[in-house]
Design goal:
Structural class: mainly alpha
Helix content: 55-70%
Number of domains: 2
Order of helices and strands: HHHHHHHHHEEHEEHE
Number of helices: 11
Distance between the termini: 34 Å
Shape: globular
Number of strands: 5
Largest sheet: 3 strands, antiparallel
Strand content: 5-15%
């Protein structure tokens, strides 16, 4: 029980907050539950599409292309492209995370990942259009310029502080043949369905089972089926 609580500490804390709210102020608790339900419904509608899109991008775009246009050597063209990708994106910011995991895996730099995420969050084109409608073009233009400058500064600092290995730690290996990036893993269980003797899901994360012989064909299918590319050879 202690291990279960420790592995799901955030969920336990949220449950405690909700219970406390229901006791102290029921109306606020009901509003919170309603809002949470709305966002959970939104995620269930959006994330499957994002996972499919991520899998397609993984198939269609090779590593050399990503490194050329978004890698460390891409310089100003990579920065500009990152701003464009983030600005023309659709959907909430959490939809960007699996896509950015894929881009980083294929060679995108930390700086460009930060720019994509930041642009996706605060300077998307639909957002700017609504900003003009309600606050005026002058406000939007000034805010947009200042935001661009801030993103450039923070992406430069972030690139100096965050290392590539920081985004790919917590890996588990079996016989030096396969690894699981547990930070990227979302516990969807697709790998366990594809190769049940090797993979299982424990505490909402993929887990490697000890087996005598690994079937390469089945392993490759499991790796290809992972929607967030958390499995590697």
């Amino acid at each position: 029980m202690k291990k279960l609580i420790k592995n799901n500490l955030s969920i336990v804390l949220i449950a405690i907050v909700y219970i406390t709210l229901f006791i102290v102020k029921t109306s606020l608790a009901l509003t919170s539950v309603k809002n949470s339900g709305y966002y959970i419904k939104e995620m269930l509608m959006i994330m499957p599409v994002i996972f499919v899109l991520t899998a397609l991008l993984d198939t269609w775009i090779d590593k050399k292309t990503i490194m050329k246009y978004l890698g460390k050597s891409s310089k100003s063209k990579g920065v500009i492209l990152s701003f464009v990708l983030g600005s023309i994106s659709a959907g909430p910011i959490y939809a960007a995370f699996p896509i950015c995991v894929l881009l980083h895996k294929k060679g995108a730099s930390i700086r460009n990942i930060i720019i994509i995420l930041s642009s996706w969050a605060v300077i998307k084109v639909p957002m700017l259009i609504n900003e003009v409608k309600f606050l005026g073009i002058q406000f939007m233009a000034v805010r947009w310029v200042l935001t661009i400058i801030a993103i450039l500064i923070f992406s430069f600092i972030g690139d100096k502080i965050i290392k590539d290995e920081d985004l790919s730690v917590d890996k588990k290996f079996i016989d030096g043949k396969v690894s699981i990036n547990t930070r990227a893993c979302i516990g969807c269980g697709v790998c366990a369905k594809t190769y049940p003797s090797l993979f299982s899901v424990e505490n909402k994360k993929a887990h490697l089972n000890k087996i005598d012989n690994i079937d390469d064909e089945q392993l490759n299918k499991a790796i290809d089926s992972c929607p967030v590319n958390a499995l590697n050879k």
